[in-house]
Amino acid sequence: MALIEALKWRYATKKMNGQAVPQEKLDYILEAAKLAPSSSGLQPYKVFVISNPDLKEKLRAVSFDQSQVTDASHVLVWAAWDGYSLEKISAVFDRTIAERGIPADAMDEYKARLWGMYEPLGQEWHANHAARQAYISFGLAIAAAAEQKVDATPMEGFIPAEVDKLLNLSELGLKSVLVLPLGYRDEANDWLVNLKKVRTPQDEFITEIK
After folding, report:
1. 3-state secondary structure of 180
2. Three-state secondary-structure class, residue 75
3. SS3 of 163, please?
4. Counting Cβ atoms within 10 Å, is residue 60 exposed (0-12), middle (13-18) or buried (19+)?
5. pLDDT tens figures, 58-114
6. Where is the Nitroreductase domain (predicted)?
7. How much is the pTM?
8. Which class for 8: exposed (0-12), middle (13-18), buried (19 or more C-beta within 10 A)?
9. Would you state the pLDDT for residue 75?
10. Would you state the torsion angle of the CA atoms of residues 14, 19, 25, 31, taken in this order, to the nearest 10 degrees?
11. Residue 181 forms beta bridges with which residues?
């Protein structure tokens, strides 16, 4: 029940107080993000951890002036692959083969089948699929932050093309997808902090099929 209680505690923090998040808590959150499941284990995204004040100011300017970006201890940016390729998939599978100590050709058949499925779907589908994998990691990071009593603000409210420029993501074959400021709530100045958490009632949210 500890996770449920942590999720009840968390909310989309609207005002942070600038307090630093200890490194061990940040590491815990990032480890949860890294351990997230992804389709075929490809992890087609990277997480950028930003604490540089000047860069946070620039990010705020392209995030609709949301103060959490500059008041946060760290700002995490999930950037997904802009497309799949046989080379990228092979690199992931090669690492898996090396780590598991299995024959070099053990995943060849699966790799060929996977790329045969992905290749004809086109780059737009690729980018959208990769972004959906990033959302899974993002969700686990939010849950881990709640466990650590670290506040977080899930954000899609930014201009992706501008964030891509700031972080030189295009050169890396990546596109920004999600932003997550981490820090601590400013209880005196956050209008949302004491409002009741509202979710769909259980009997409307859950449909059981037996």
Report:
1. strand
2. strand
3. helix
4. buried
5. 999 999 999 999 999 999 999 999 999 999 999 999 999 999 999 999 999 999 999
6. 7-184
7. 0.96
8. exposed
9. 98
10. 50
11. 75
Q: What angle do CA 80, 160, 89 make, to 5 degrees?
A: 15
The burial of 46, by beta-carbon neighbours within 10 Å (0-12 exposed, 13-18 middle, 19 or more buried), is given as: middle
Distances (CA, A) of 115 to 40, 60, 104: 11, 38, 18
Give the C-alpha separation, 13 to 152, whole Å. 6
Task: Sort residue 122 into left (φ over 0), alpha (ψ -120 to 50) or beta.
Answer: left
Give me the amino acid identity at 98: A
| Residues contacting 55, CB < 8 A, separation 6+ | 166
β-sheet bridge partners, residue 185: 16
Please give the C-alpha separations between residue 184 and each of 6, 17, 22, 84, in angstroms, as whole numbers.
Answer: 14, 6, 11, 37
How far separated are the first and last CA of the chain, in Å rounded?
26
Rounded to whole angstroms, what are the CA distances from 207 to 26, 193, 202, 204?
Answer: 36, 31, 9, 7
CB 71 within 8 A of CB 15: yes
